Amino acid sequence: MRHLAFVLLLICCCASAALAQDTNVALASNGATIRADSEYLGSPVDTGGGAPASRLIDGIIRASTDAAGFNRWHSALSAPNPHWVWVRFARPAHIHKVTLWRADIGAPVDFSGQCTVDQGHGLKTLFSCKGVHLDATHISTTIEFPPIETDCFRLQITRSSNPDFPQYAQLSELQVFGAWVGDAPMPSPQPAPKRIRGAMSDGPMPAGLRVETSSEAITYTSNNMKISFPLDRPGISYLALDSTGSGRLAKNLLKLPQGASISAVGWNDEANSSTASFTVTRSGATVRYLNVRLAGLETDDLIFTVEPRGLTVSIERRIPVGYIAVDTSPLQILFNAAVTPPSPMGRLKSRSELQFPVLLHFPDNGTLLVRANGGDPSWGFVGRRDTREVQLSLHTGMQATTGGILGVSLQSAGDVRSTLSLKMLIMIHYLGIFSLSNPNYRLEVSSNDVMVSSRGLRCEDC
């Protein structure tokens, strides 16, 4: 008997915290001082009744098990964005890395780092970050930049993660790493990635599809779909669907900064290194990421072809030697269940794998029929309720697996070619319920329940 399995996930993201390898010149014990735009000094939960900026440089980092209000800086409740903290070092240093440690909800999401130059007469921006996600499992983020000599650092926060109090900001610790001037040579700058922006030609375009190319991304828009491809990393940074064709495309279904991207052991650590090289081109409705090198494990080509109501992804992987595949995927998609809970539906291959074809439903947005072929493809799924994220990972060319969510697989050597097709299904809306238009197959999603029924239907017929 063939069974149809339905998986509803309301929830995935994991990241690692970086640890320092050189001097934290922002420590108070190393002579640093700090001030902030504001401080929460009447707190009923903080030790001593306040959350001053001095706790950002005391070397004490809050653990996820610590009580709320433990050793943190919190902005004043009445102070609006942007917030800032300014650290003055004991003496000039060559700095090249900053780490932020989360205190609780309200961690920075959009922020930048600056320092003074020209003996204090100028201000230089060292980095700008948007969409950073810190939570109980991902408690820190580290930003590296070309080494620079300075005696201070300023963190400016323009958006935080507390949805109920968006003007609040808080952190447990701010670390600035480098070497004191005169004590050690300035670290050598890392070679820049060899990222080539190739030809961006118009070419033929399907009717109803528009394209815009900026300095950051290539974006296609129709009445049913909006999708963006970043120029600095292979993958998808924005995806919005509207099955009604009304052009309601303001909500990104993807969770940033990951979005949809390649995942391989070491790839995230090396994404900004010289080994993370590729060429990106566009011709009409096709975007190509060519010769993407993944941490020495393999070299991939990803080709995305956009239609007004769908997307085709062609993937070619060149794997010189087989390797143990831990969280490895040529296309791993992280959805934001806080926007709408994605519901993948298909036959189970194992406890954490779906066979293709798969129905991927987004309540109030639309439904995609997803097919794949080549390399014995399957779709691994993981959900974490606490972070309200859903992760779907395309798996191809796997030689063996132990099974289970924590299973380890062997990625086979050789050339693996696969195609992934995502097509939007027409939905009929009546009495607050959505239904597939196929008369033999019915998927209903209301505010309280999900129901799937069929009349001896195979999913291939959807």
What is this entry, summarized?
The protein has 462 residues and is mainly beta. The chain has one helix spanning 267-270, and strands at residues 5-6, 23-24, 33-36, 73-74, 83-101, 108-117, 122-129, 140-160, 170-171, 173-180, 195-201, 210-213, 217-221, 225-230, 235-236, 238-241, 260-263, 278-283, 286-294, 298-307, 310-319, 323-325, 329-336, 343-346, 348-350, 353-354, 358-362, 366-373, 378-384, 389-395, 398-401, 409-411, 414-424, 427-430, 433-436, 441-445, 450-454. A ten-stranded mixed β-sheet has the order 1-24-27-28-33-21-20-19-18-11, with no helix packed on it. Strands 2, 3, 5, 6, 7, 8 and 10 form a seven-stranded antiparallel β-sheet that branches. A seven-stranded antiparallel β-sheet has the order 15-17-23-30-29-26-25, with no helix packed on it.
Write the layout of secondary structure elements.
Layout: E1 5-6, E2 23-24, E3 33-36, E4 73-74, E5 83-101, E6 108-117, E7 122-129, E8 140-160, E9 170-171, E10 173-180, E11 195-201, E12 210-213, E13 217-221, E14 225-230, E15 235-236, E16 238-241, E17 260-263, H1 267-270, E18 278-283, E19 286-294, E20 298-307, E21 310-319, E22 323-325, E23 329-336, E24 343-346, E25 348-350, E26 353-354, E27 358-362, E28 366-373, E29 378-384, E30 389-395, E31 398-401, E32 409-411, E33 414-424, E34 427-430, E35 433-436, E36 441-445, E37 450-454
Parallel strand pairs: 11-18
Antiparallel strand pairs: 1-24, 2-10, 3-5, 4-9, 5-8, 5-10, 6-7, 6-8, 12-13, 13-14, 14-16, 15-17, 17-23, 18-19, 19-20, 20-21, 21-33, 22-32, 23-30, 24-27, 25-26, 26-29, 27-28, 28-33, 29-30, 31-32, 34-35, 36-37
